[in-house]
Structures
1.
Amino acid sequence: MSFESDICLYNLTLRQRDSSIGSCAGNFSGKKSQEIITATSNRITVLKPDTSTGKLVSLLSKQVFAIIRSISNFKIAGSGKDYLAVTSDAGNFTVLELDLPNNRFITLFNEPYHKSGIRRLSPGNEIAVDPNGRAVLLSAVERNKLVYVMNRDSDNQLTIASPLEANRSKVLAIKTIGLEVNYENPQFASIEVDYGDYEDQNEDVNDFTHSLTFYELDLGLNTVVRKHSETIPQTSNFLLPVPCGPDSGSTSGSPGPGGAIVCAANIVLYRNLYGDKISVSIPKTDKQQDEDVYVVAGVTHQMKGGFFFLLQTNFGDIFKVELPPDRTLVISYFDTIPVCTSIIVLKSGFLYADTEYGDKYFYQFEKLGRDETFASSTENYSPEALTFTRSDLENITPIDVIPAINPIFDSVLSTDDTSAKIYAASGINDTASLKLLQYGLPITEVVESDLPGPAHRVWTTRLTRADEHDKYLVISFIDTTLVLSIGENVEEVSDSGLATNEETLQIQQIGRESLAQIHGNGIRIIKDSEVVNEWLPPAGIKITVSASTNRQLAISLSNNELVYFEVDENDRLVEWNERKEMPSRITSLALGEIPEGLIRSPFLVVGDQDKIMRVLSTDPSNVLELVVMQSLSGVPVSTLVCFMNGELCVNLGLDNGVFARTKLDASGQLYETRTKYLGSKPVLLSKCMKNGENVVLAFSNKTWAISDFNNLKISSVLVPPLNSGTMFNSDDCTDGVVGVYKRKLVIFTIDDYANDISLNSLELKSTPKRLTQHGDHLFISDSGKTSHIEKFNTDTNDMDAQIDLAENQKIITTAVVNFESKGESYVLCSVATNYQSSGVFSESFIYTYTMDLELVHKTTLSGIAYSIVAFQGKALLGIKNNLRLYDMGLKQLLCKTTSFLDTVSNIVRIDAQGNRVVVGDLRESVTFLTFNAKLNEFIPFVDDTLPRHITSMKMVDYNTVVGGDKFGNIFLLRCSDEVSRTGEDSTLVRTKDKLYNGAPFKLDNVCHIFIEDIATSFNKGLLSQGGREVITYAGLQGTLGVLVPFLTRSDIKFFKALEKAMRSYVPDLTGRMNLQYRGYYQPVKNVVDGDFVETFNDLDEDLKKKISDEVGKSVGDIMGKIFDVRALSI
């Protein structure tokens, strides 16, 4: 008996999360320039400013299959580079070294310090580093602190000693930092709360004492001692180290007294070991006077001869704080930017704002603050009402933005004939926006102009081999050719020597300084704008297809003959002695690039009407002799041979819309074929360049780019479907593309081939709550500080209508319902007045609007409706643990039935198909119900075995539902066929006994995986034309992912074997086991980790060989299988 499921999913992340846990800066590459390392909970990214453009460039991004808790950089004295300290749920203290030449991180140490998982006693919550890199302190939320002593050995390699403990029972650590003490014993400061005196009290205690505690590592005795502790304000939450100046022996050159800046509600304090106490109030705007202001991020910046602090409040305001030698704290308003988790100031004069949500910003300093300051030097603090007025950015200027889409509250997948788009409701209050994500390469348009008629083909060409840039732009129409010059001005050339009364088949710069034009009636050789030679085919015979290099030319004739030419030593194009007759009509030809050290391309690739590709030799000893042949699935209408990633590749465009690529070795043998369906039209191919590497352009229903910088990637290009295109290089535009479509000519660039998801944003009025799609419109429910409903037209990308609600009204959810009794659709909006996050509200009701957002009526409810769906021509609402069915009335909605569900507590999601309803509960997972029309009642018949906290769900089919919970799990639950048939008989269901205080039957948990993000929405549909149907999901932290179903048992078996082998041979950077990570709360089941499997392509060859031997497949076959999953679904 087999226990293997017929269902297995492939989980693949399309866009990684954006919510960062922290950032740091240092010389990680060992060079003088600084890099920024930013970390999300499962990815580490290295960024570096581009000195020429001022933009941030991503140098490296590595996924970590663990939950990263904290990161920090440190540098050992005398070392030429910074190292990265990482703590994670693996329970290891990880030290990483950046190896940029090999595009990787090297794990130097994985020192176990606690059990795996995130626990309050696990000392990985914070990392505090001695500024001189001598010690690293790991702090837990409660009790435990570990100090690691770092050093170098005789080979200048980093060493780490066994940890020293600094534990204090019943003490909570709020914030911990390393202090500047020069080369005295390393010291650390921590905000702590001792709850020992309160733990036995039953009543709530709100007056815990906060202490600032100083710890010192005695390097001589190898012990950690608590050196000093003093009481600080109860609201203290943030610390910054103060530089220790030359008087104290500092090597920083910044005069400073040492100690720490302590930040509490509405106040900034200075404290040190010697009892100095200085305080200053945090200025507020007029609107903030009744609210507490907290510092949430900050940075200490040291300059030659001075230093200052930048502190950001929870309102986004940045204040500059100075500590002059006269021991006064001076504070002044600096600027206002989005609230950050980390602020990085680079020595080169840039500021990186690692925001909590929304886009990340990169600023350049213009000046260092205002003259208007506030100062205080009182030891006994008394609150002062300091006020300031916000202004536009004065001291910093934004020069780059890294797009981000977190948090995502809802998403909708919209698919048309050519592309799929994902609309995401993102952002909070001022950053609220509707994000439009489209799978494809974004372009930067340089110019677009009209043409005199519909163009078929376009070429660019140089006039001599020595030219650096293209000189002519040649456009082919029906029976005519247009020649334009490329320079400061694009002008028509009348004396080019080209036959403009012919339809051009190809243009090629040939030999040293000649130009060849191939057209249906012959070949024209032009030199210095004059025709120097012309080759004509026999009478009645036409040239049909051609291929060329700088020294070779091959043409096919309408009588199926193949003619081959070469350039001789006198720079003349000479026909080879013999012609070759092919068995059927030739449909495509290609001569590959000339390899280094050779004078000709060694192979000619020929495609014919019989769906055969032949590789012929061009060697003078056996010209046009067959080397190898291969049958194809369609007629090759276009062929392109070029080097990609150092290997010679044959790219084929077939008449059935399929693109195929196969590799060609030096002996002429073909291997490692990859295919992808691009559209219903025949595929035409061309070539462009990016940073000296070849990129293949494919033209079908859409325009595609095929690149292989590290791995083969086929991505659509977000440009109108081009008929033809080619590379474009001029003085002003390098690595560009010129294309033609209809009566248009367009020149554009593709800036980043790695970023294959285009992101556009539309600003919203407030925090978006829900997206509801109806035809070509989206209804957006905004529910932040104010509530609104906006009607968005997906065709025009404009807002067609909007309506504002009263200030005390909060939108809970919306839905579009087609009422059968009226024959019309209406927008239903669930609203609560005076709603609080605890669930308390004054009144709850439903607003009913027309599709133009005109109010029809209002219906009062007894509780909040958290979910509304259309069901059999009526509206089905979930109110607490009741299902209510409403029909349209004249003055309000009319309740037709109410079903009390004693197996659930609070319905938050509803989905329906036919006669079946699925509800998702806040605590009690998923329940299937059937509707008995005679009894007018919803009857539960099957539910889950686990009490999941549902955040989103969607019915995949009549018996299956996919869902996510608030702990980051995604699962697929299925009702068996037998139970499903039983569930249709509501009378039989009512007689069944309840199982485990629930429904009579239980759902099968078919699939399960941990994605470490809270799924807020699921959608089902196609992401690419001709691809397989997939499930997409969006996560709160900005994750966009896809679940791809395997179609064959052989694929399931193969990928499970590959995943198992990789788990054995591929260690994680932090030492976390992939199986444990993906099964964090429940064992992973019938889901292959596609993110992990795709790292196979980045492994070294020896490791690939070991894994391939374990799986029993070749390395090429494994890479092909991995490619096929993505190619067939995205």
2.
Amino acid sequence: MPSKHSRGLAMLTVAAWVAVGTATASLAGNAEVRHDWYFRESLRAIRDWEAALARWESEKSPFTAAPAFPVAANGEALLWPNPFPLRLLPIEDRGERVRVRLEAGQLLVERLRDGQALKRETLAPGSMIAAYKHPGGGGKDQWYHAYHRRFDRLTNFTARPAPLAIQLDAPLDLGRGKHEVALSLRNVANRSLALAASAQWHAPSEVRECGRQQVALAAGATHVARFPVPLDREGGGILAIRLEADGDSFWFPLLTYVEDVSSVLTSVGQILEDAPDVGAAAELASLRQKAAAFPQPTAEPGSEDAAWRSLFEQASRLRDRLLLGRLKFDTLLFVKRKPYFSEQPFMDAHHLFNRPGGGIYRLSPPRPDGRVTPVVDSLGEGVYRDVCLHWDARRLLFAFGNGSDHWDGKQSYHIYEIGVDGSGLRQLTFGPKNDCEPFYLPNGQIGFTSDRSEHFVMCGGDRHAPTLFVMEADGSGVRQLSFNVFNDFNPTVLPDGRILYSRWEYNERSVTSLHNPFTMNPDGTMVQPYYGNATIRPNVVMFPRPVPESNKIMALFTAHHGQTHGAVGLIDVRRGIDGDGPLTVLTPRVPITGEKAEDSAYGWFSDPMPLSETTWLCSYTPTLLPWLERSWALYVADRHGNLALVYRDPAISCAEPVPLVVRGRPHVLPKAPADTDSTEAEATLLLADVYRGLTGVPRGTARRLRILEDLPRKGVKTGGVICTSGTLIFTIKRVFGTVPIEADGSAHFTVPANRNLYFEVLDENFQEIQRMRSVVCLKPGERRGCVGCHESRNQAPPAVRFLAAHRPPSRPEPPPWGTKTVSYLRDIQPLLNAKCISCHTYEREKNKVILTDDLTNQFTIGYQELLPYLTVAISNRWDHPDDVLPRPPYTYGSKVSPLVKILAAGHYGVKLTPEDWQRLVTWIDCNGVYYDRYENNHYPNRQIFAGPAQEAAQRIVARRCGNCHGSDDGRGDTWWLSLNRRDVRQSRALAAPLAAAAGGWQRCDAVVFADEKDPDYQALLAILSSVRDRLAKHPREDLVSLEGTEAERQQVVLPSPPPPSPARTAAPDKDWVYLSDLSWQSARSGWTRNGDGLPRRDRDIEDNTMRIGGKRYAKGIGTHAPSEIVYALDGKYVRFQAIVGPPERNGTVVFQVYGDDKLLFDSGVLRNRQTTAVDVPLEGVRRLRLVVTDAGDGHICDSANWAAARLRKKGNEE
């Protein structure tokens, strides 16, 4: 018989360790280490269970359904058998159970702890019961991240009435050896019962039959079904037990695990390869010999389990002894705190949602049984963080506060200093701002990060963007070092005295991909990328720290959307400054993630503290979920990712291990002067040769540099993403002016200090050749030089005389219209009003675009119509190579934008003055930005049409116009949701459908409003008038930019409308049939609004009028990639025709047509509402397949229209 074990069930307990033995086992010394071994072993078990479950899914096994537990129909209470192996159950979970019984036709579910009911609930039979949650399972945080574990479904079950009662002495502890599972089956019906019971053991790569029994039970009789379970394979398995009674079937799992001795022995071998030890090598050889000679399971159940477990523990103890022996210091500083729980690392790096609790402590010696004493833990409720030990090892800095997701100024973090013995505590910073991440500077100052600059993250309200500051040792003389628009975090000091820190930026580049190490001098000068400024993965480099006696740094590699957890590695910039080449990963199989944190089947690391290139300290959790409050502990690790526990607190997680040792002081560099944060000062730049890096650009082409500023978001503390542009960027822009480039490619010029500047290389017509998609910020009086444009940082300047170096620096020549922040409505729309609207006001099909300044919900019609004619960079696209890696000259900007090409070719006599031309190309080269400010005082997300008024207008338009125009806002077509702010009656929703006799444009196929007395016309007029009146009282910010300018005073006169549109009639063509009038054989759309997954007939996928290429189509099929639509033609048709294209701006899709699985047509990638015609023969084709795929660019705009899709009937050929 199998040995008896205590049985434990748990619901939602989050455990910090896994134990072997009874619930009263001591947690001190070796017992605590043993608990930790098994907590980490659960990762191996879970990987195998997941693999077995994946195989079930691929084979469509009946076990893929949730376990179905039989509940005795006579009302008898039964204990659900927790499938977890006892050794992998957390101690506090062992006293918990789930008891189920049938009562009055309902399920009564009781949660028990130590026999006492904690909770009761009543459920319908067949309901899913969440019975247990292991800490290694999946879950979701308070943001949008979800981690999934298949095995979680094995600890949930459905319960249904059954004529039998089962009893199993669970949880079991099925380890190595031969076991016998005894399952008691009792007939609770008042008649005889035929039962069948079977068991199968499933591992990732094999299945073993464990017996099948059939038995006839008299009423009230009991039968014990016994299943032999031999276990000799290391890792996890699933014993699936199936019961059949009265034509119904039930099943439940039992999970097995055999310790992974082989992996532990491999770890020991790796450790000894790095640091040979004769005695340990002999121990390893002996353990390997024992493992190799271990017998196969014998006839005696459980006889090998204890011996194998002992072998596992001996090997684990040897591994730990060797790794802990690398700690050559007496005392370790560390922090007790709950893990950060924010959405992104930049939030964790500062003041957002951090759960209070903990303190700063000393561990001596640094061993699991070392003595823990507090340094400071009595400042009240809050979070202790950011420990920085002084080089003399006598004092330390830290931050303390209480983070909140919605900071109100009352929960600020402040910086403190204290002696390592707990004496001399003093607070260094005060006030409502958040000061974090303090660090000592060799010159005697203290650096830190703070939100004192009042910057806010562009893509989220209530999210401060901390930057670097410095102060004197007593907290006085606070000065701002960095002026990053986004944020700086995780600062430290390199041996040469420079500050090493992580910086986030996304100036016209991917918002997710670039949080990488930079360096600067302690006075704020010489800011430059250290690694990864053109690297997608890792998305985020955190906690960069110099490795002692090395030129490398160690860091954590994590995700943009994720907490401070991930893989750990070394960065050696001697091997490069981007990509994988400089990286050495120290944590095999833990993913280096992109935008979103991925699943790690090997746990998560954080807080790496290098001791050497091969040994490091860290915090680590052997769980999938990184935010569990008690799962993180301190470990010592080697270059292979092998771990040994240093310290675990069962009540709270531990972080930030810092050896208490004296270190050498880094090189002393000058302090920041008193005026270092002045924004009125200047700096000087010397460019050696702009052509170095401009591949393919002939010398003499580059004439000027344009100097631009990316402005920070200040003062707008809430509201999430603030709309600044229709070109998918986040920032507003200022043009300071241009400076000349000499004939040899050199330039010498002044720039404003403490501004986020970037540059564009221009030709003689002020058109962009290349742009800098990063920013540089110079300090007052700083003189910097660069070699070229996009050249490698490791290149030396050419040994020649630069022409620009022998003259005084040029001062930027501002554009003729000044240096105000760029505003489309003020700077560009007047140009369209004067040059374009005489043609581009009414006739879309004739003139392609409408360019009036009518206000749309966020912009103007003219602005939104021009966007497809601009070639611009994108920020709001995640991890796309084009948005991260360097791009060649002429990728973006006015030189390659279709709008400029149309005008340059001569556009119906349109003449632009030199200033008009410069104004237009400058705006395009500013990436087509619209707004000139972040303020957003009256209109959430800039939307002027919102609330009940818009809903009422939508209902009117849907009723009167929907048959032709759909139910959207008319963008790219009618623009009915727009406002002529000068004359409301000339707004398109009122004038276009109004009869000409009543003063309207009469642009519809039939008169909609015969006169202004129409009740719907009057209702729309009232709605639009109310919007106009509100704008007069509270102007939207684009209108504010006009105040007091020539643009505000411009007289705009619309041309007379053309004659009324004639009624359109469509003569039927009996030779052709539209696909939308036929039934498809099968069809799927990759996205639909209602989730039905089906394409739309005669509408686009959003159920709006089908429009592509500026035209509206009455017939067609709307879908979304990936899509496949199949028609059975049976040879009845001879030709297929359609107009295809993406209806969305920035859409990127590929259309393909297959006849009997032969490719007949491939559109290639169609972008930005581009269209193409399809015309293919179908003679003899029996099966037509229409396929749409995305372009593989990560862009979500994948709607696709098969407009006017039709088939020519056989026998009607010309």
3.
Amino acid sequence: MDHFEKKLFETRSKIVNTTLLVLSILIVPTILFSLMRALETGWKPVMYLQVLIGIGVIAFTRYRHTVTYPIRAGIILFISYIAGITGLLQWGLMSAATPFIIVLVPLSLLFLGKRVALFSALLTLISLLFIANYFVSGSELQHYDLTDYFTSALSWTNFIMTLTFTMVVFSIILFNFDTSLSTAYQTLEEHETRLKEKVEEQTGQLIAQNEEFESIFMLSKGGLALINAEGNFLKVNHTYREMLGYSEEELLGQSCVALSLEEEQELSRMTIETILYQGYIDTFEKRCYHADGSVITVTVSGSLMPDKKHIILSTKNFTHEERLRQEIHNQKERYHQLLTLSTDGIFLIDMQGRLIECSNQSAKMLGYTMQEMRSLSVSDWDAGQTDEEVLQHIRNTPTEPIGFETQHKKKDGTVYDVSVRSVRVTLNGQEYVYATVRDISNEKRLRTQYETLINDIGGRYVLFSNTHSVINFISKGSEVLFGQTPEQITGKRFQSIVNWTPESLNLALHETIRQIRRNREYAEFEMCYYDNRQVLHTLFIVQHIRYSRQQKIISIDGLIEDITHKKEQERETKRLQTIIDEFVPYVKTDTKGTIISASKSFYTEFRIDNIAENLKINLFKPEETLDPHYQKLWQTLKSGKVFEHDIQNNHFNREKHWYHVKIVPQFNQTNTITGYIAFYHNIDEKVHLTKEIHTDPLTKLTNRKYLQYIQDKINFHEYDVVMIDIDHFKKINDNFGHQAGDMVLQRVADSLQHHIRQEDTLIRYGGEEFLLLLHNPTKNINVTTKISERMRVNVQDSLREHKDLYIKPTISIGIEPHTERTRNLEEAILHADEMLYMAKRKGRNRIEIYEENRVASLEVKSTKKYSINDIKHAIDEKKLICHYQPIVNTEREIVMYESLVRLIDDRGKMIMPGDFLYIIKNTNIYVDMTKQVLGYNFKFFEDKAQQFTINLSVSDLLNDSVQQIVMNKLARFPDMAQYLTIELLEDEIIEDLEGIKRVMEKLRTMGVRFAIDDFGSGYANFGNIFKLEFDFLKINGELIRHIDVSEYSRNMVESLCSFAKKANVTVIAEYVENEKIFEYAKKYH
């Protein structure tokens, strides 16, 4: 039926929805046409009604799902009738209402009954008559009156044709409707037949299930009862009836609640409500009345039946177990006092390991409450065995008491040791295990400590003997002590176990007798024996004599320790102490620094005669001293740290010696300083050696190593840095020899030393250079300037006589005043060196001071301080360029070009060689730069038949890499050798004459020519120079520059040209700056 009703509903829904759709479509033109007529003829009441009906149809179509299907059908019929009537009243039956009436018959039959259907059929028949008449006569009905319309329609001819057409259409409608209805009823019968068959099948299954339930219910060994929601019995099985002693007739219809004890009836009612609510209830105990009036204990559980209206209860008689529990309870009461007063834990356990009863002490030992204990079993607290081992142990418990040790676990997880005595007992026919438990944690710990003391006390051994000194026990490890096992020693007399020395035996006997006479419990003494290898061993013995109550000796015990190694250490310590006392000077002081004691070496070192008197001396100045050195000393010592320093000590005699002093704080057990020990080490030799290392042997000034030594020990910001250089010192060496040069260095050093103060430091920095660290904490530059000027004038005015020759040296000075801008001493020295270089370029014998605001105007030194990295970066970025200066003959014709190197910095500024070459001179960057310059020149002149010169230093030419570049280039372009001239400086050549000669000969064979540059600036030996057979001689520019005004320059140039002409060397003049100099130069050509 459900399936048929569902299909029917679906059919209704489709019909109604379709009808509503048609209504919605057809009503729109009706409304529009009414509106048009209203505009033509004026509004009439029926027009208002038609518009409202149209809006209602559209709204109902939109919200049709909010009402049921019958209500929808009724609304459709109502709308259709109203629409038909309004159409008939307004403009004839041939209106838009007619199609609505056609659908009324099937709808009214399906939803509203036969009477409404007949009425609908009548209206439909009339409508069909009007429609047929329209089709037969072809009249336009909407323009006729109603009277004319009926007159026309009732004419006999039209009536017969109209009736015939109407019957045909109506017959078709009824036939289709009857066919649909017959099909629907046939489908309904088929569904009903299938439903009956299914019901019969399910009924058979239910009967079978019911019979099976009845069989299980009645034959169950447990008590089963079926009750309704009110708790009345509907069915009970045989076991349930026997349990309560009632017949089935007595129980059926009776309330199960009434069988419960009065105080438990409310509980029974709550149980039924719980089952009805949650569907089940777990097993619980309850008491109820038996038919004979007695009270029995049962266990009850229940479940809700699938129909949600009936409950099945499962009941079991628990009276026997309850009685047993009561008997045990009675027995427990008898032993209650025993359980309460017992200091041991008492447990009564069934054979499954469940706890039946226990004493208060048991719960206290385990850390549980008595309530918590009742839910525990042995496995919950036995930590020494697994669950299976516990059950096995319980089952194997004999009827005679046994004892064993195990471990129990407390509630908090703590494990402790227990001693257990258990026995199997029978109570009321049931077997249990009765056990007493004692906590032996402390006892076992003490026993373990005792055993450890005896067997594992690290070189100590326990020995027991009787009154006759016979050994009856010795702890393990005796092999280490005596070389014998405990079994070998036991039973022997103490005197015979090893080869004791006679003195030791006498001492042991003497100590024992004295101990007995003085009634002392123990005595301490040492004994010695020789082992099998005749090695002497020393034992320390603590002997204890045990007495009885009657003061008789029971036994003699001893604790023995091998102290052989300790004795050797003591002897070694004494020897070391003697050595230290003899050879290490040290003193011990109190916390104020007053000497308490001192070593013999201390008195010897400081030559102290009256020891007692000098012990009162305070080694350090008091804490209140204002001396910063001693303030630092006390601050270090008070913080518990070691203080070290070097001092010249003259406390006890007038002699002064250098000592390295190390003062070490001494602490007590509470980490409080109790005094100090000061160790003295004579460093006179070290100081003397250091002084030699830091002293220049020629000038007796400090040297550069001393500068490194003091660099971290001074605050360089308090010093002005002064660089001093002897002018033309190389010429002095070359002209007068090195002995004269050494004499000048000594005299200049003495002169400089004479004008400085004690707080200043003068250092021979290297060669003819001196570095003065002038102490100027006030930053008054005038102080430094005055002292520097006095030194310059004094050196200038002094004459140095050497072998009938008078040498008048001068000095140039560069000053870097200390400022916060200078980061370190190296930077300050660099600034001072720049100023020294400037002083030399400005004519020497002068002072230049480093000032930031005027460095921009320097002529010979770049203001920018270039670092090695700056120069390396520029070279790597190919920012080296070469300028080519022409060299002309007397006819002003260019005969060759001189290659001049320049460097471009990051700002595009050109840097002269003097500003960067000295920075990289001794680095591999200089070699790389030389390679790059050579490459530029060879590339520039490789396709030009033009003479050119390249300036190289001797070190460049002697460098294997540079040589190889030149060789490779000439090998690749052999024609270039005839155009290449290498210029070498005069003062560099004499440094390695033989080496440069070999290189020149090698290159000369390839066609290269050589020029000596800046000739006349130094004091080189002419013979040595011309042994190298130079091709060109370039006269020093200073001589040429003054040739027109200086007779000395003219004579020097004339001599050089004459000498060069005789040696067949071409002369080149530098610094020909004007026509007058050019004319002078032509004279010597």
